[in-house]
Specification:
The chain has 173 residues and is of the alpha/beta class. It is 35% helix and 18% strand. It has one domain: P-loop containing nucleotide triphosphate hydrolases (Rossmann fold), CATH 3.40.50. It is globular, with a radius of gyration of 15 Å.
């Protein structure tokens, strides 16, 4: 039986977009899939990265950021890292190796103008039929929402950040 891949988008201002994508990666790994996780605007060894390294070489993880989210205008380095990351993700999607490709925080990279929206739309329309692509991050553009096969919006109703709780190891990072 041939695998049919779709395009999933996890967006919204609530917690859980990356977590949902990582849960799907875990399920895919359990099914014997090859997984690629590309993280835009991020760098560093988060707890989930350490945990997923156990599954190497069934999962490849690459980060395309400076380790902090952009405040103000993106720098030349932000543009360079996002562009290099996007080109690598295109290669991974079209390589024939991976059944699941996660583009974590790509929506934010689009939102900040680091990657043109039309290039993302072209990528999802031309992806191989046997590759599942998951795109996460706040501010998913309407055109991507329309092009996707599945869209989930995480909506914040209540969050302990509002009471000053910082990101905790093992829970948020």
């Amino acid at each position: 039986m041939e695998f049919k891949g779709y395009v999933q988008v996890y967006t919204g201002n609530g917690k859980g977009k990356t977590t949902a994508a990582l849960g799907l990666a875990l399920r895919a790994l359990g099914a014997g899939f090859q997984v690629f996780l590309g993280q835009f605007l991020k760098s560093g060894t988060y707890s989930e990265i350490k945990a997923l390294e156990v599954f190497s070489p069934k999962i490849e993880i690459r980060q395309f950021g400076k380790g902090c989210f952009i405040r103000g205008n993106p720098s030349e380095e932000d543009f360079r890292l996002a562009r290099e990351g996007f080109l690598l993700c295109q290669e991974k999607i079209n390589s024939g190796i991976y059944q699941l490709v996660i583009l974590d925080e790509l929506n934010l990279a689009i939102h900040f103008g680091l990657i043109p929206e039309d290039e993302i739309l072209k990528l999802v329309r031309q992806k191989p039929a046997n590759v599942e692509v998951v795109i996460t991050g706040r501010y998913a553009p309407q055109a991507l929402i329309e092009a996707a096969d599945l869209v989930t919006e995480m909506r914040e109703i209540k969050h302990y950040y509002r009471q000053g709780v910082k990101a905790r190891v093992g829970i948020e990072k």
